[in-house]
């Protein structure tokens, strides 16, 4: 992927991590009328209601209905976190991470992220993944970071989906798999928001690159085929189509000669045979019935003698003529340029 997105994801992960706590707290406060409910929350919080304590923490963190005060938000988050409220645990951990109202302490931050993550809280799982990715509060462990992002991503948490996609794109913490990266980026795009545009750009880059790979492969195949042709190295292949009313077959050896299909390089196929049945993987057949066809080839390639640029196909076959009659039939095809793959229509003029 593009260097600024996929090859150097750490910069983006740090930026995302810096807004992660705010995103989580905002999500917790959506739909709440802080001015109208603040008095009720204070009343409930005095009686130890963890949800009310969490809402008070949000109110003080964002300054909604009260003066913004990180110390007070940390106080209320801690009270709710001590009761096992996952949202408060995550928020309290984020305040330790950034040193907002409490001393900056990555280890303590990870402690609270872990408690919330163990309860399945997606935001905490994402933040815990960031901590392992950057070695903040825990020794760096990219594989473990990816696993925590995966847990959050499976819950539809867009930042975790984006981080997981970048890991697959770069092969850091997981086996590189750009197709899987696209799957996760597609999920990010479906949710819209700030990350969707960048995710779509990464998807576009991936498909453009895949298309270019296909074009390059086609050009490479053409070049390789041209080199083979220039060297007289060809995959000899042709099809025999029996459009007569007779059955054609090789059978046993004929008097003084062997039946089969031969390849030669001049009109005089009797003395200039290049490939006989059984050579270069070139086979023959037991029978070709009327209105049927069969393909033959020399496998894998045949290198023509220097100076040769054409080949001929010679047939020595038995033909059933009806009423038990059998005739031996000789036929030499027109010449074909080396590497051509013709269909030779076989319709012997036998009555």
What do these coordinates show?
- The protein is of the alpha+beta class and 351 residues long.
- The protein folds into 2 domains: 156 residues, Tetratricopeptide repeat domain (Serine Threonine Protein Phosphatase 5, Tetratricopeptide repeat, Alpha Horseshoe); 114 residues.
- It has 12 helices and 11 strands.
- The strands form 3 sheets. Strands 3, 4, 5, 8, 9 and 10 form a 6-stranded antiparallel β-sheet that branches. A 3-stranded mixed β-sheet has the order 6-2-11, with no helix packed on it.
- Strand 8 and strand 9 form a beta hairpin.
- It is rod-shaped, with a radius of gyration of 38 Å.
- The two termini are 70 Å apart.
- The N terminus is likely disordered.
Write the layout of secondary structure elements.
Blueprint: H1 3-7, H2 9-29, H3 34-46, H4 50-62, H5 70-81, H6 86-98, H7 106-118, H8 122-134, H9 142-153, H10 158-170, H11 178-191, H12 194-230, E1 233-234, E2 237-242, E3 248-249, E4 260-264, E5 273-275, E6 292-297, E7 302-303, E8 310-322, E9 325-332, E10 336-337, E11 343-346
Parallel strand pairs: 2-11
Antiparallel strand pairs: 1-7, 2-6, 3-8, 4-5, 4-8, 8-9, 8-10
Largest beta sheet, briefly? 6 strands, antiparallel
Low-confidence stretches: 1-33
Helices, by number, come to 12
Q: What is the approximate shape? A: rod-shaped
The radius of gyration is 38 Å
| N-end to C-end Cα span | 70 Å
Instruction: Tell me the helix content.
Output: 40-55%
Count of spatially separate domains: 2
Q: Indicate the CATH class of the largest domain.
A: Mainly Alpha
DSSP summary, beta strand count: 11
Mean pLDDT across the residues is 83
In the CATH hierarchy, the architecture of the largest domain is: Alpha Horseshoe
Q: DSSP strand (E) fraction?
A: 15-25%
What's the CATH H-level superfamily name of the largest domain?
Tetratricopeptide repeat domain
Give the oligomer, counting copies of the same chain as homo and different chains as hetero.
Answer: single chain
* H/E series: HHHHHHHHHHHHEEEEEEEEEEE
